[in-house]
Amino acid sequence: MIRLLAIDIDGTLLDSRGRLPDAHRDALVDAAAQGIEVALVTGRSFHFTKPIADLLPIPLTLVVNNGAVVKRKTGETEIRNLLSREAARVVLDETRHLEDSVAVVFDRPDERQIVFERMDWTHPHRRGYYEKNKAFIARTPAPLAEMLVEDPIQVMFNGGVAPMRALVTALRSLPVADRISVAITEYELRNFSLVDVNAAGCSKGTTLARWAAARGVTAGEIMAVGDNLNDVEMLDFAGTAVVMGNATDVLKSRGYHLTGSNDESGLAAAIRRHALNK
Questions:
Q1: pTM for the complete prediction?
Q2: Do residues 266 and 27 make contact, with C-beta atoms less than 8 angstroms apart?
């Protein structure tokens, strides 16, 4: 019996054009009506997740920033797992060659939630994100490392697939490697990747496990659905793990259940098959 659905957003809940399919919404409404809890588990920050959550007329838990923060749909914080400013400073100092591809994310109530030094937001892969989030983004008057006056949620990089893969390798060999966790999300067809540096032990999976335990829900009672590399820990934790038809080949090779793509109502089909038994 499934008691909790853990659903990724981009590439899973949303279709390839960033829209919420009616079939996906209806399946989640039906699941909630059956008493199944729903958590959106995403690399997005809370303010970027909220507009999507508002499209779903059901109670939701939002596990955001790849597990660094858990909030209620109404904005109250349940869990925070912040990155130490000392570790973040080392990461920034060791990646100065990527200062035009990095931002720092804070848990703040104003426009300084995402701060950057030299990011080119006109880049085709960044422009859409900037337009949707510009109210929360601020340019720093000094190097990013000097802006670390409090512990951030994460350090966030983006760029082409090859340089971001190289970055992941470099980050995992830093002297502070035991104080950070690194999550990568890849879009090979677009030659674009996101790399998030969070606190050690922080991932979608570890935070989902912590949240479920607090709710008295076992791993065997959880169904998780995802499509990208940052979903692996979540999928490995859940008793029922499903990957979308549009998922990366790496995920498809790991033996999870496979459903249709996000343009084929794949999430709805998975929910009805594995959670609603229809």
A1: 0.94
A2: no
